[in-house]
Amino acid sequence: MKTKEKKLRVNMISESEFTVQGHGVHTAYKEITAALKKRKDVDVEVNVNRSADIIHIQTVGIYSFRHLIKRDGKKVVSAHLVPDSFVGSIRGAKYWKPLGRWWLKFFYKKADLVLACSGMVRDELVNDMKIQQTEVLYNTIDMGRYASTAAERQAARKKLGLKKSDFVVIGNGQVQPRKRLDILIDIAKKMPEARFFWVGGIPFKNLGAEYGAMQKMIGSAPENLVVTGVIPLEEVRQYYLAADVFVLPAMQENHPMCVLEAAGAGLPIVLRDIPQYNDTFRGDALMAKTDKEFIKIVERLQTDAAYRKHARKGSAEIAKRFDSQAGAERLVGLYKNLL
Q: How far apart are CA 256 and CA 31, in angstroms?
């Protein structure tokens, strides 16, 4: 008679449950936790004190550190952050980046396994920060949640006050210097007949990098561009459903969740041509080498149906690669190898 296989006990630790949300680290943690909870071979709980096979840590604060140094269980840390992630995100980061780098290195070295969210992050962890116990686990999402019917799309557009004929462009992320909301503002000014949304705000408020300048930039947006501010994750979906194109002009990223969400919604994806995307989105997303090229690509997507169709095919390839079921399967394999 076959013996029933014992469930893998996982304690998931994330400070974003009780601190600031509205950022990609929180979304990544929520997505992988939900995917694990769907599996029959895993018993996962969040922010609990119980014995476990694996303690998987998603954030790098003091609460997480207390779980990291417990004797019980193998420790896995998701490296959503590298030192450059602070610059252009948090106020004064260029002055305290060396301290941030020291803390990340100290924190990650305590883990039995560190999970880099992209190949470039892994290279930085291994080669620059000398953290050898590193594997790549790409961020993933439940792609099916962002798929929609024609009726759902129509309802989402109606809710946002859009006409059937409106061409809609969205961006998503925190409003901070490195995300380059100013590019979307420029496109909106050059395409006054189109509608634009930036889904996000400044979750860290006064701690956000160049907070005053970012508020001023939001205030300078033309009438055809709406900055939503921080909204619950559950409300974000309607913007993807209503959109025709997704644009992320960020100067630095690791493996952004918003790109995955746009892929799940089947949108043409326009990104900046940066090396962080070499092993994730290159070849499938449209990439702008300059600020001005963003405008050319978006204008062409509005007028060229064949170009839009080509871009959506690339988006579908991204969706296939980064679905959460595949991510959870790889993660459970990594857990078992560690044990």
A: 13
Supply 320's token pair. Answer: 């296939």
Cβ atoms of 10 and 335 within 8 Å: the answer is: yes
Model's pTM, two decimal places? 0.82
The tokens describing 145, both together, are: 């949640």
3-class DSSP state of 43: strand
Domain boundaries, the chain: 8-141+323-338, 145-321
| CB 112, CB 76: distance < 8 Å | yes
**Which residue do the tokens 């959460």 mark?**
324
Cβ neighbours of residue 306 closer than 8 Å, sequence gap 6 or more:
none
Q: How far is CA 12 from the centre of its chain?
A: 18
DSSP string, 120-143: HHHHIIIIIS---SEEE----B-G
Which token pair is 184? 């979307």
Cα–Cα dist 117/112, whole Å: 17
Q: pLDDT tens for residues 289-309? A: 999 999 999 999 999 999 999
The average pLDDT across 3-7 equals 73
Do 8-141+323-338 and 145-321 come out as alike in CATH topology?
Answer: yes
What is 8-141+323-338's CATH number, 3.40.50.2000, 3.30.300.30, 3.40.50.720, 1.10.10.10? 3.40.50.2000
Whole-angstrom CA distances from 18 to 49, 161, 214, 234 are 16, 33, 25, 17
Please state the CATH superfamily assignment of the domain spanning residues 145-321 in this structure: Glycogen Phosphorylase B; (3.40.50.2000)
Q: How far apart are CA 56 and CA 114, in angstroms?
A: 10
